[in-house]
Amino acid sequence: MLHDHHEIREKMDRETVDVELALDDKSIVQLSLAAHEKKMTLNDFILRVLEDKIKESDYQFENGTKPQLLNETE
Fold first, then answer.
1. What does the alpha-carbon distance between residue 7 and residue 34 come to, in Å, rounded to a whole number?
2. Which of 10, 28, 40, 68 could join 45 in a cystine, given CB atoms 3.0 to 4.6 angstroms apart?
3. C-alpha distances out from residue 60 to 4, 17, 50, 66, 74, Å
4. H or E segment at 15?
5. Looking only at Cα atoms, what is the longest distance across the chain?
6. CB 36 within 8 A of CB 28
7. Cβ pair 31, 23 in contact under 8 A
């Protein structure tokens, strides 16, 4: 399963698609202000948010829902 997951991610990294989002006015204003603060376009900001959430989701998929502390012993 993990092997397939990595193949899908590699394919996704090479391809882009258009996505239509239905957002209420309040969300658009909040996203627009956040994008403005970072001196980004709204589209670039939303793309970054989506990419960050996908990476976070990938981490959780591969490592479980909670980060774990790994202790090395002698």
1. 33
2. 40
3. 16, 24, 15, 7, 29
4. none
5. 57
6. no
7. yes
